Amino acid sequence: MSGYQEIMSDPSYAGQFVVFTMPEIGIVGCNDNDMESSNIYASGMFVRSLNETPSNFRSHESLPAFLKKYESMGICDIDTRYLTKMIRDSGPKMMIASTQISDPVKLKAMLAASPRIEDVNYIEKVSTPKSYLHVEGVWNAEAQAYNAAPKRIGKKILAVDLGIKRNILNELCEVGLDVEVVPHDFSADDVIARYKKGEVHGLFLSNGPGDPLILKNEAAQVSKLIEAKVPIFAICLGHQLLSIAHGYPTYKLKFGQHGGNHPVKNMKNNIVEITTQNHNYNVPDDICKIARITHVNLFDNTIEGLEYNDSPIFSVQHHPEASSGPQESRYIFQEFANRL
Asked: pTM of this prediction?
């Protein structure tokens, strides 16, 4: 019933329409505090029943008003359960929607001429154009505000923005790290120089949209960081980019892992963590030749976490910041801080 605003404003959904299987969407409305970025990056949303009159003390506006403000498309009265079953059987579909063209022949021709998601570098559309400092902590429900950045621990990281979520940055700040966000086209040589001088102590690779194999330059830069033994932590797309930079190309899943309540087993302590997921691509099984598998998805046994051998580098496929969603994996941010 909630989380739709975070999903629509998550840059990882750039270029995609999102199908919501919960029948009623819009009940809790929308508000500025739940934005994961400064815009709606998803192409649009499908819902079964749209609630245009929200009832929640945190709501500032209705879902239709939210979509109109950011000029995003929403389509309601769709049999989303049927659509979901179709996607589960045959995988994600290319689609086109228009409020101006109703001729199916014209629409079909336009769709056929459109680029596929693996042909578009969405990172260039969602990454920050220049570096900035992030100084906000996590959401404080009691105060109904984000925490001020807590006491620093004297460690600074660079967070590479591949489509980063606001709450990932908040979690990095919450464990006491100084966080500088840098564009996707960062220079590895510059990072290595700053690392050797002690100006920065590690690097974070963020989540983001699209096919990771299209990120040739980013993978080349990450390869340099790996060789220089710079400490790295990565989530989702960053996790996949690390695999590619190590020489292990990713592959596309049939319909990916999306939404909340995905069970992931922590192989180090045998505890099952309930996680939030959003990815269409995955790292190959043979990466275990160079890395230790730390987390496994219990739905399909795909790899969810890695620690690279003889290297200060680790990553996870799921979203430990879980906004919105369960927060059983938040400890990973503290683990990163402890390793620096």
From this structure: 0.96
Q: To the nearest whole percent, how much of the chain has pLDDT over 70?
A: 100
State phi, psi for 281 to the nearest 5 degrees. -125, 160
Each domain of the chain, given as residue ranges in start order, spans: 4-114, 123-339
Give the whole-angstrom CA distance, residue 2 versus residue 183.
30
The alpha helices in 157-305, defined as continuous H runs, are 166-174, 188-197, 216-227, 237-245
**Helices 331-339 and 166-174 meet at what angle, rounded to 10?**
60
What share of residues in the chain are helix, strand, coil (percent, to 5)? 30, 25, 45
Q: Helix crossing, 216-227 with 237-245: angle to 10°?
A: 70
Give the closest residue to 256 by CA, choosing from 309, 202, 292, 209: 209
* Equal CATH topology for 4-114 and 123-339: no
Q: Are 59 and 30 in contact (CB under 8 A)?
A: yes
Whether the predicted pLDDT of 323 surpasses 80: no
Three-state secondary-structure class, residue 298: coil
What fold, for 4-114? Glucose Oxidase; domain 1 (3.50.30)
Single-letter residue type at 147 = N
* Dihedral pair phi/psi, residue 214, rounded to 5°: -80, -10
Q: Tell which CATH architecture fits domain 123-339.
A: 3-Layer(aba) Sandwich (3.40)
Does residue 239 contact residue 306 with C-beta atoms inside 8 Å? yes
- Write out the catalytic residue numbers: 236, 319, 321
